[in-house]
Amino acid sequence: MLLLAIVLNIAGIGIKFFTDDGALYSALARSMAHSNNFTDLMYHGSDWLDKPHFPFWVIAISFKIFGVNTIAYKLPALLFFFMAVVYTYKLAKKFYGDEIAIIATLILLTAQHSVMSNTDVRAEPYIMGLLMGAVYHFYKVKEKFSIADILLASILTGCAVMTKGIYLLIPIGASVIGDYLFKGNIKAVFHWKWLLSFILVVIFTLPEIYSVYTQFDLHPDKVVFGRTGISGIHWFLWDSQFGRFNNNGYITNSHGDKLFFVHTLLWAFAPWAILLFYALYATIKKMVKRIAQPEYLCISGGILMLLIFSASKFQLPFYTNILFPFFAIITAVFIRSLKIGAEFKFFRISQYAITALLLVAVITLNFVFAPECWLVFVLLIAGFAGLAIYIYRKPTSVYQPVFLFTCAVSILVNTYLVTVAYPTIVDYRGDLSAAEYLNQNYPQQKVSAAVLSNTFDFYYKGEATYTNVDTILKTDSLKKRIIVADEKAVAELKDKGIAYSIVKSFQDFPHENLSLPFIIKKKRPATLDQFYLIRIR
User: Fold this and answer.
1) How far apart are alpha carbons 114 and 124 in whole angstroms?
2) Which of 275, 281, 282, 454 has minimal CB crowding within 10 Å?
3) Residue 226 backbone phi and psi in degrees, to 5
């Protein structure tokens, strides 16, 4: 089961971008790799200030080694995710032994959003690995001072901060401090080694400070967020995260639901979410009763950060991914503690109910979403049935059959998504199809793009000039090229009475969030736009 789960998380590495973030981050890293300028983040010649540098440094190095392609973009993130898996295993083993460590590892590998994030890669796999590594080595420093551990912990923390901002000090610090506090050893929090670690973290964060300083603070005349005088250091230390959380930074949001991450976890941490909620309740109940726990790292880091996320108005489903290792260990401890009784009955009922829903969902999805892929679906179901039979033949512990069956269902569902659903969605990315058509039929052709698509920009191998319809029409050299256009640009040409011919058109679903009509194949055509390659007559 562990091998299947590992392969599953690797399987999506070659699937091309079907959301914008991956293509955007790739464009930034590609610019860095081509220019050899590792201090400035540039987007089509303009200064870009929205994320810290660390992931882009890593991706740019990957591009230099493996070339600019989808796999080279996703590979570093996948390695950091497996770093999180290793440290989750090591941390769980340290306190609870091998069996709970393996259970926690399987939970992390089969959690729904873990698998999805290794296909649709953003910054979360990086944070997950860095966060868990930092917590593990800081705990070793807590037990016994070691130069190697304090250096490793500080480097990993510095890299985490350079990935998403200084708010990541919260779950790392809360984990270690919470363990001190709940074990009644408050004085040890003020040991000199923690001052040293703080100094080291600051030192290892200096590359980011230097980069934003040289790009922005030294050039107050640059226009960012529609204004001048932007301080890159102030943005990094405050606005990049705390400004968003407080909703008083350069980017604001008017929405926010205090229970957003509670109901998000129901699917993002599926099929383990119900068990997680119960395990959190059971753990907190024991703490209230002052029943000593082997560790308080997971509950301290996980709960506090979840509360902070919930209090923020900036809420995206993948935010909680970084807490999945903590949640996996907490859930694993509960599962391994099960004995015949009321809690075991709850475990069986909840997991069989969730797995039944998932099986019904994937069966329904196959018949309404991609019915032409029935052969793949039948092979997956046959493999799953064989695995399920094997699971129930020789159970060795009371929890194992239900637990392993749940893992098998998650693997089935996500294998279907990786082999059928995601590739089908990719087929309806008109910008990607246009880039591939040009690469094949007009190699190295110069084109004019009346729409800026990050996906087209990443996959098109020729030279593209990105501008607007008016500029193209006023410039003969641009007007004579093949023009890349979406429906809005084509409608603008029609309004201006400009005659054009269509070189090729492509079906395009222009949204990241899937709609029910799109999922149902018979209704899908009504949800689609067209993406065009045209010539001006």
Assistant:
1) 9
2) 281
3) 75, 15
Q: Which of 133-137, 371-375, 380-384 has the lowest mean pLDDT?
A: 371-375
Burial of 320 (0-12, 13-18, 19+ CB in 10 A): buried
Tokens 């204004």 found at: 227
Helix 297-311 / helix 324-336 crossing angle, nearest 10 deg: 130
**Longest Cα pair distance anywhere in the chain, in angstroms?**
80
pLDDT digit string (tens) for 261-278? 888 999 999 999 999 999
pLDDT at 244: 64
The span from the CA of 330 to the CA of 300, in Å, is 11
Distance between CA 111 and CA 332 in Å, rounded? 13
Q: Are 108 and 324 in contact (CB under 8 A)?
A: yes
In the numeric block, which tokens belong to residue 207? 């590359």
pLDDT digits (tens, 9 = 90+) for 293-329: 999 999 999 999 999 888 876 777 778 999 999 999 9
pTM for the full predicted model? 0.95
Give the other-Cβ count within 10 Å of 136's Cβ: 22
Using the structure block, give the residue that is written with the tokens 């955007």.
Answer: 24
Integer Cα distance of 444 and 463 in angstroms: 7
- Name residue 417's amino acid: L
Range name among 394-408, 418-432, 464-478 with the lowest pLDDT average: 394-408
The string of DSSP letters for 229-240 reads ---HHHIIIIII
The answer to whether 331 and 275 are in contact (CB under 8 A) is yes
